[in-house]
Fold this protein.
Amino acid sequence: MRIHRLVLHSFRGIDHAEVTLADTGVTIIEGDNEVGKTSLAEAIDLVLTIRDDSKKAQIKALQPVGQDVGPEVTIELSSGPYRFVLHKRWLRRAETTLQVLEPAPESHTGREAHDRVTEILAETLDVDLWRALRLEQGADPGNVAFNAPSLGRALDQSDAGHQGSDREDDLWERIVEERNRYWTPTGRPSAERQNLADRVRGADEAVRTIEAELRQLEAQTDEMARLQAEAAELTAQQRELEAQERELVERFEAVVDLQRDLDRQSVALQALAADRDRWHRAAAARHQLAADLQDKAERVAQATALLATAAPEQAAVAERQRRAAARHDTATAVLRDAEAAVHRAQADLEHRRREIELAQFRERLARVDEQRTALEAAEAVLESVTVDAAAVADIEAAHLEVVKAEAALAAGATTLRITALAPLAGEDLQLDGHGVELAEGAEHEVVLGGEARLVIPGRLAIDVLPGAEAQALQSSAESARRVLAERCQRHQVADLRAARDAAARRAEAERVVGDASQRIRDDLRDLAVEDLVRKVERHTERIARYTAERPAAPPIPVDFDAAQRAASEAAEVLAAARAELAEAESALSAALDAARSVEVTTAGLVERATLAGEALEHAEAALVAAQRIEPDEAILTASAAAEEAHRLAEERQLATERSLARLEPDTVRALVANATAARERATTAASENRDARQRLESILESRGEQGLAQRRDAALTERTRLSLEQERLEARAEAARLLHQTFERRRAEAHARYVAPFTSAIERLGRVVFGESLRVELDADLRIASRTLHGITLPFEQLSTGAREQLAIISRLACATIVAGPDGAPVVLDDSLGWTDPQRLAQMAAAIGLAGRTCQILLLTCTPGRFANVGEATTIRLPTASSPAATPPEAVRRSA
Amino acid sequence: MVRFLHTADWQLGMARHYLGAEAQPRFAAARTAAIRTIGALAVEQGCAFVVVCGDVFETNQVDRQVVVRALDAMAATPSVTFYLLPGNHDPLDAGSVFRSPTFTMHQPPNVVVLTEAGPRLVAPGVELVAAPWRSKRPLADLVAAATAGLPADGTLRIAVGHGAVDHLSPDDADPALILVASLEAALAEGRIHYVALGDRHSTTAVGRTGRAWYSGSPEPTDFREDDAGNVLVVELDAASIRVTPHHVGTWRFLRHDAEVTGDADLDLLAAVLDAVEDKARTIVRLGLVGQLSLREKARLDTLLAHRADLFASLEGWERRIDLVVLPDEADFDSLELSGFAKDALADLQALGEGSGPDALVAQDALSLLFRISRAAA
């Protein structure tokens, strides 16, 4: 189908619009929604399908708002060999006119015109294709199945002969139908087959059941034959066994008689044995009484003897006890003495120790007194002698000055040397008034500091007068001497030597003070002198008192060591005394125990003797009493008689037993029992056999009448028939399955080849949009199943909305290009690609342009310029509602 | 001189599972009808009595109806006494049909069961020496046992036995085999004069004396039997013997083997079948070999389907037989299949030309396609 021209008048918002379309190529119609851009697409459908007298709401909605006019549509189109112009007006002045232009001119009006159009379209238009190629605004841009006949035909032409014709389709349907008679969709046997299989199984079971019954019947028949044979045997057996039993019973009766004799003898023998035993017991009892008497007498003797041996022992024990008591007393006294001795020795030791201490205290006190005396003397020296080391140094310094001044004087002054030519006495010569005494040859030099007068009494006086220098020197020397003298005087010494002596004395006194103090400290230690004195006093007093109070004897040991020895000895004596006492105590205790034990023993012996005596009396009484009843001799005689009677009876019984044994009673008894049991068993068996036969007889009688063989034959026939039927049915099922399988496989292969051109057409257009890596896969209904891009395959449903819409458009374009001839239909896209970005839109435009080379494409859009990229296209702009209706649509032919 | 009728193996109550619901009762009825025929023949031939040598009944467990109808048929000729011998199918065991209440209650006076082994006087100077089966597995030659110790005293004796004879049996180990040598010795010594046997369903003379016979079954029972459907009228004295077979059977078992490879063979097969008389009482088993095209097979099927209705039974064509069915070019050419259908057809043809079960299925599939496509065209 090709649409050549479309005219709308008073159609919705459109006052008047006329659109002329190229046979092939793209026509873009731009217009607002309210203008009725979409009305164009709608108008095509309505004019072709709705009669002019329709009052449908759909038609009423076509009327322009507020105007009571009839909407009109005129369309010129070609379909197949036909080309016609159809005009329709609805609602107001409804009319239809049809001008068929090709192949032969026709003209129709009214209903006739409408019917003729319907007829032409039915003959030439592939409605499925027409619908498939339209993508309306707001419709789901989903996947459309392209199983339109015209596409099929087109694809067939491209791959001639591989897709079957209607004939093959029909055959295929029959094959499927045939297959479905025998198989469920999941490949399981159909209900009919299962039912038949069940019936075959049932028939099998029936045959088996009857055959089992027959086998049982046969077995019962055999059993009956066996039982009959057995019955005869049993009867014979029974008779024979009865005869055997009778004979044995006779033998057994003889045994029984003899046995009865034996039993009687046995009873008698038992009585005799009892009699004999009774006499034996009487003799034994008498013997026992005598023995008892003897025994009791022996016991009395024993007890008496024991009692006799107990007396000396008793005495010994008493003696031992006495000795132990004495020893104990002695040990106690010794201990007491030893304790006193220890006490005394301790006191003595203390006494001696104290004496030693006293001596020591005294000694220390004496030393202290001595030191104190020395100390006092030394302190007195210290008091009196003030010259100390410093004073000595002071005096020595002064002395040195004197020496130096005198030396200077000597050197500078006049020295007067007197030499005695003859012994000179003091009266002989005086110097300055002092006699000079000199031995012959001795010299006496005097340095003269001043004037000196040498007088030989009576004779002469020589004055020596010093010069000035000598006087000075003299003066210095006199000054030095004065200093020295002052210092000596101050220290109360005469001269340097005296000073030095005094200092030595003072030092000695100081040393003595130190030594004495140290010694005093040493002796006193922590005591004061008074304490020491007190100790001495106290010790002295205690020693005196001890000496006075202590008894004279024994004498106090001579010294401390002796006292120590005495104390030690006394302690040893005490220990010994204690040990002895302990020993004595335990000896005493043992002796007491022994005494008690002997006492008890003796008492027991006495008791025993008493009891034994009593027992003896009893025994004697018992024996006497017994003898009084039956004398010993009587018992002995009776016992012997009973013994003899028993022996004789025993011999008789033995003889009888031997007779009985000769008859083999056990064997006979066993044989009888066995024969009886055998006979009884045979009887039982015969009776069981009879019962079994009766039972079987009745079973066989009733069974034989049941016509089992016929029933088996019927069942076998039924089974054979059913098996045969099943065999045939299964063969048919298998045939149908194989036929279906083979056709299905070949059909699928053919289909795969068949979709190839369509697939390649989609891919050819699609690669313009998606690039070279695009692959699509189509399903059996020629629907896009999946898209592969850059090696990634996605199912159609998982693609983005945009991609889905793009693929949907591309597949329509592809379809249209394949069915491009007179069979084809225009592709109508209403406001598509809203989800597509500008770059993709350009690519889609290119694809649309490519498809437009071979088919008619109608693009409706309310977005001017959306398809600006379509290369070769005619754009028609619909007038807006407000524009004057007269304005014809602006048509622009563009060339790429 | 005595004249009597020798028959055996009535096998009353026998069923043939390949017979349909319609033929089976007719088959059974024919066996009962044969009894009346025998009775009438005995009267006509002036037979003193009829001996039935075993297997009167197919089994001891036959239906009551079979028993009463048989007794009724025998009662139809009261002048003829029927001596019935228990055979291996109906032995005189505990479950024996001859002792069943149905039998004893309806037993007519002219029916005698040979229950005792040994001689029995049936006419002046004539004795039957019966060897009845008492179980299904006897452990000795019953005939030899029954005839042992009989004197050659001029009494005309007819031994009545049942079972295989050693000359004709493949089973040497069977202790119940009837020894021909022993029979012939007794015949030679004049202790017995005729041996009436049952068990073989085809009429058969035993040995060379002419005095020992299997009468055969009065109605055939199987395809294997070569001379069934007869009874023997025996005319006997010590010096001479005359045995005359009379055909009384009304049914026929027919086995037909043929090779069919084309329309000509099919024409022949049709002619052969059409030539058979009394089709309603004929049981046919076909053994067809060869190869047919689908069209020819379809023709064969039609041909046989029609005749199956005519015959009591036409067996062998329903089952898979040694007949290869392969389409030839002509079969599918007229359909002008194209596209995938053509390819699928080629696949099936290739598969069908192979061997084994797959090939059979493929042939079936081709036949099916043939049928479907013709319906579709």
